[in-house]
Amino acid sequence: MSRIAYVNGRYLPHRHASVHVEDRGYQFADGVYEVCEVFNGGLVDKRRHLDRLERSLRELFIPAPMSRIALANVLEEVVRRNGVRDGLVYLQVTRGVARRDHAFPPAGTKPSVVVTARRSDRKGQEALAAKGVAVITVPENRWPRVDIKSISLLPNVLAKQQAKEAGAREAWFVDSAGFVTEGASTNAWIVTGGKTIVTRPAESGILRGITRTVVLDVAADLGYAVEERAFTVAEALAAEEAFITAATTVVMPVVRIDGHAVGAGTPGVVASTLRLKFHDFSEVS
Ligand code: PLP
């Protein structure tokens, strides 16, 4: 089946799907995005992803490109046209096409909307989760508004590349006080020796991950103790378990940090249980 993308009102063959050279997303990274998991043909936590999208747009004064229902229909239609049962749907909204000028374009400039979908290799992901992944740590160098899901991701791109070159899957940003903020594309978690799950509060310094929100629900339901507080790299290295969360990875055990084993150096029972239970708690529609 050939891939189809949605671009500004049209469903196009993926290879012909393109935006104008003066799209502000292309020129200024002036836009926002969402990535939503597709599970058994349904969108995972669509409601929360659309809520967060609306918030990101509001924070950047980008008008909503269409109604929420219309946007949800486009997401579902792209998933359907691409025959995705398990995978990801990507949605990007930019401030639109206009003559290059840093300040906002004239009122009435239409935001641009792009939606793509792709299948993921569920077996491969499960195999990875059974082994666990490595992370490296890098100094936090992003702007303070990481609560906005902006397409402006250069520090994340550089950190991820550094991780890749080090044979790791993710890079954890560490703030100037030595606390882990989050991964380049995931939220960061540890499980202490006392079996308490620890993750940074989402009030500032991180993106409030949708997966993070659901994992907190799962943890509460399973009766795990949870502390929303910042943790240091030293604490993570001394932890029993570590893991990362995102729509792209669900719950992924972390078994090495900067080359040092976490706990036994194998995926822990808490992370594995949260992964197993995740889709019982997420809204799939
Ligand atoms: N933190 C960052 C920087 C991200 O880019 C992402 C996802 O892309 C997340 C956290 C996890 O968010 P979610 O669980 O909504 O995918």
Description:
The protein has 285 residues and is α+β, with helices and mostly antiparallel strands. 30% of the residues lie in helices and 28% in strands. It has helices at residues 24-28, 46-59, 68-81, 122-131, 154-165, 210-222, 233-237, 269-281, and strands spanning 4-7, 10-13, 31-39, 42-43, 87-94, 112-119, 133-139, 170-174, 180-183, 187-191, 196-199, 225-228, 241-246, 250-257, 260-261. Strands 7, 8, 9, 10, 11, 12, 13, 14 and 15 form a nine-stranded mixed beta sheet that branches. A six-stranded antiparallel beta sheet has the order 2-1-6-5-3-4. The structure holds pyridoxal-5'-phosphate (PLP). Pyridoxal-5'-phosphate binds at residues 35, 182, 185-187, 207, 209-212, 245-247.
Note poorly predicted spans.
none
Question: Strand portion, in percent?
Answer: 25-35%
Q: How many DSSP E strands?
A: 15
Estimated radius of gyration:
19 Å
Notable characteristics:
alpha+beta; binds pyridoxal-5'-phosphate; 285 residues
Short description:
The protein has 285 residues and is α+β, with helices and mostly antiparallel strands. It contains eight helices and 15 strands. Strands 7, 8, 9, 10, 11, 12, 13, 14 and 15 form a nine-stranded mixed sheet that branches.
Q: How is this fold's topology laid out?
A:
Layout: E1 4-7, E2 10-13, H1 24-28, E3 31-39, E4 42-43, H2 46-59, H3 68-81, E5 87-94, E6 112-119, H4 122-131, E7 133-139, H5 154-165, E8 170-174, E9 180-183, E10 187-191, E11 196-199, H6 210-222, E12 225-228, H7 233-237, E13 241-246, E14 250-257, E15 260-261, H8 269-281
Parallel strand pairs: 7-8, 7-14, 11-12
Antiparallel strand pairs: 1-2, 1-6, 3-4, 3-5, 5-6, 8-9, 10-11, 10-13, 13-14, 14-15
Helix pairs in contact: 6-8
